[in-house]
Amino acid sequence: MRSRMNISHKYVARSPAIAARLLGGEMMIMSATDSTFFTLNEVATAIWQAADGQTPLMEIVNSRLCAEFEVTPEQASLDAEQFVDELSRHGILLVSDEPIATPETQ
Amino acid sequence: MSLLAEMNQKALRFGVPISVHLDITYRCNERCVHCYLDHDDHGEMTTAEIEDILSQLSEAGVFFLTLSGGEILLRRDLFQIIESARRLLFNVKIKSNGVMIREADARRIRELGVEQVQISVYSHRPEVHDAITKLPGSLKRTLTAIRLLKAQGLKVSMANVLMSANRFDNAGVIALAKELGVSYTLDPTITPKMDGDRSVLNLRASAEALHDILRNRDLVSNVEESCAPPPAPDEDVMEGYPCSAGHTACYISPYGDVFPCVQFPLPSGNLRKQKFLDIWRTSPQLQEVRSIRAKDLSVCSSCAHVGTCTRCPGLAYMEGNMRGPSTADCEKSFQRTGIPSANMLRNNSTAWSGPLIQIGPAA
Q: CA nearest A16 in B: which residue?
């Protein structure tokens, strides 16, 4: 059984090895490394767009998800945890205990 | 329906050009006998012009970007262009003959996050491949490039154009692709040259070759289904449109000319004079292409194959009428099923009479 991720001290960043485009409110994402293709719903799109490597994931959950999508902090945390876990396994999101430097922040 | 097909449907619904093929040069270091391009530079777009267009394409919603030519490595700014495209988060595929790719180039292509590299290979035999490219030693250099790209972990596809000169070599190229761990695509399309010269069509493979190819289980995943008689068309078929050209895809030349597809030379605007979205939304030519439904086709609407034919409107346009038949596709439908097309019956002909068409690889 996989252990649950504690998101309270995590940082997330978009991998540079992906392609992405917003189409009709849905984010299309394809990994350049394994060609896995995803579409993200609005909640996942909000997390992905906010994943700048500098903003703590918990702050993204509180400021974006709870504020914009009328979900409880518990539900938002659970959704974020599942989403980040899945996309990080495909190398689409980078996860770290420290802020992450990306080409956008350098 | 796959997720990708769903996104294509969505792009169609929203009128989004989800795929663009951008040729950045027509210059080439090979002189392939079947090539439809001239190889002179008539005023290619500059790096700045291309980067501006990439920005416009990103804003228009383009996701899949194919960079091709000519030979793209002849552009000294190639990696700057790819870098700009990747910064804008395009899914980038590049097409090359591989001759100029060295280890450092392969590494850079991987670092930039190119999703796929398509390399042209005409035969597993150097004497055949090199005679087609007219560049001695080209097969050896091309295969070296494929190995370098694979060593970087890149996804590589081998594109094999079928013609009379390499008619018997596709099995050898498939074996080579398997050995190198790359995918394989057979393309039997030979189109007239840009200057209207149709002599290259004499290079096309025979009807017999096409018949065999359409039954080749290495290329067609379900031969029985593919070669079965076509079902009667329903209303959805008659209201359907032929392909993505001008609907969710288009082609841009090195001079900024916009066309519905690389194989559909209907000038629809120029990016040195207009913004991309203006052309995409308001070009009368693109609007005309989009207006055509199967029921509007002058001959094909009454053809038994109307629901299953891979009719290419670009090839039909090159034959004189974008609403007319593409004789190459008539031939393909005939060779698949043994049933003549309406156009063949009208002309009382079941003989091969047009350029070949593109078929996809086995799944």
A: B113
Confirm or reject contact between A104 and chain B (CB < 8 A): no
Q: What is the distance between the alpha carbons of residues B283 and B271, in angstroms, rounded to a whole number?
A: 12
Say how far apart CA B91 and CA A32 lie, in whole Å. Answer: 7
Nearest one of B66, B61, B55 to B22, comparing CA atoms: B66
pLDDT digits (tens, 9 = 90+) for B184-228: 999 888 888 877 788 888 998 888 999 999 999 888 889 999 999
pLDDT tens digits, one per residue of B83-104: 999 999 999 999 999 999 999 9
What pTM value is reported for the model? 0.91
The CA–CA distances, whole Å, from B281 to A23, B14, B29, B120, B246 equal 17, 11, 36, 34, 10
**Cβ pair A32:B91 closer than 8 A:** yes
Reduced to 3 states, what is the DSSP secondary structure of residue B300?
A: helix
Residues 6+ apart with CB under 8 A from B87: A103
Nearest by Cα to B24 from B88, B92, B113, B87: B92
B126-133 and B138-151 are packed helices; what angle lies between their axes, rounded to 10 degrees?
100
ipTM score here?
0.84
